[in-house]
C-alpha cells in the first residue's frame, strides 16, 4: 500500500481502526514504504541523524497526521517532536501516533471534544515468554493462565499493546513516564474491550483511574484504541 487513498488494504484497515474510536476522532493510515510528501523543516530536525528506517517511519507518520488534519478541515501544520520525542500537536488538537514496520496510524480529535487519545498497533504475534514477567503483573498472568494455551501468547501481546495505548493517552496530560507495572489491564476478548487501571497517581489522573478502550486483531496486527472524554 502506497497511500491511503489508493490502497484497498490501507483503506480497510483505516476503516476498522476508525470503528474503535468515538465519532470525534479522525484516523489515517499510511505505509512507511510508500512515497510521502516532504516534511516541514520544523519536523525534519527530529530525524536529521536518524537511520533510514526511522526516517521512513517518521515521514509516514507525519503524512498520516496531515491526512487526518485535512479530513478535519484543518490546514496541514508542522507537528515537530518535543524534547521527549512526543508529537507537539497543533493548538486545539489532541492525538496519538503509532507504527509497525508496515503501517503508521494517526488518530486526531479536536481538544474541545476529547482530553486525550491513545492508539497502538503491533504485529499479531505472540509475546515472548521471556518478556511476560516484565509486561504482565500477577493478576494479568493469573488471567492468562485461565485461557487456552494456544491463545495466551497473543493475548499477552494484546495486554502489552493496551498498556502502550493507555500510556500514550495519560502522557498527553501527565507528562509522566510509567512502568508496565503502573498499569493493570483487564481484557474482554468476547466484546473487544479492555480497561487499564492506573496503580499510582500521576498529574491529572488519580490512583485507580480506569481508562476504557477497544481492540481489534485484524490484517496481521493487534490494534488498541482509547479516548479520554
Would you kindly provide a written description of the structure presented here, covering whatever features stand out?
- By secondary structure, the chain is an alpha+beta fold.
- The chain folds into two domains: 107 residues, Alpha-Beta Complex (Ribosomal Protein L22, Chain A); 100 residues, no CATH class.
- Helix content is 31%, strand content 24%.
- The chain has six helices and eight strands.
- The strands form two sheets. Strands 4-8-7-6-5 form a five-stranded antiparallel β-sheet. The chain has a three-stranded antiparallel β-sheet with strand order 1-3-2.
- Strand 7 and strand 8 form a beta hairpin.
- The two termini are 33 Å apart.
Give a topology summary.
Elements: H1 8-18, E1 26-30, H2 41-44, H3 52-71, E2 93-99, E3 104-110, E4 116-123, H4 132-135, H5 138-144, H6 149-174, E5 183-188, E6 193-198, E7 210-218, E8 221-228
Antiparallel strand pairs: 1-3, 2-3, 4-8, 5-6, 6-7, 7-8
Amino acid at each position: 500500500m502506497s497511500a491511503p487513498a489508493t490502497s484497498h488494504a490501507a483503506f480497510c484497515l483505516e476503516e476498522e481502526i476508525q470503528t474503535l474510536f468515538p465519532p470525534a476522532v479522525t484516523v489515517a493510515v499510511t505505509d512507511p514504504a510508500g512515497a510521502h510528501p516532504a516534511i516541514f523543516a520544523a519536523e525534519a530536525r527530529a530525524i536529521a541523524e536518524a537511520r533510514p528506517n526511522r526516517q521512513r517511519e517518521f515521514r509516514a507518520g507525519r503524512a498520516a497526521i496531515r491526512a487526518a488534519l485535512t479530513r478535519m478541515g484543518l490546514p496541514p501544520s508542522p507537528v515537530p517532536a518535543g524534547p521527549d520525542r512526543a508529537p507537539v500537536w497543533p493548538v486545539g488538537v489532541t492525538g496519538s501516533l503509532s507504527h509497525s514496520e508496515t503501517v503508521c496510524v494517526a488518530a486526531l480529535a479536536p481538544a474541545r471534544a476529547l482530553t486525550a487519545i491513545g492508539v497502538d498497533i503491533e504485529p499479531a504475534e505472540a509475546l515472548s515468554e521471556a518478556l511476560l514477567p516484565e509486561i504482565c503483573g500477577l493478576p494479568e498472568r493469573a488471567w492468562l493462565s485461565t485461557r487456552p494455551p494456544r491463545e495466551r501468547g497473543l493475548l499477552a501481546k494484546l495486554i502489552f499493546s493496551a498498556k502502550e495505548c493507555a500510556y500514550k493517552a495519560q502522557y498527553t496530560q501527565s507528562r509522566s513516564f510509567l512502568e508496565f507495572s503502573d498499569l493493570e489491564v483487564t481484557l474482554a476478548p468476547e466484546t473487544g474491550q479492555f480497561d487499564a487501571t492506573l496503580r499510582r497517581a500521576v498529574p491529572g489522573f488519580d490512583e485507580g483511574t480506569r481508562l476504557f478502550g477497544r481492540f481489534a486483531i485484524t490484517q496481521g496486527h493487534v490494534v488498541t484504541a482509547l479516548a479520554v472524554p
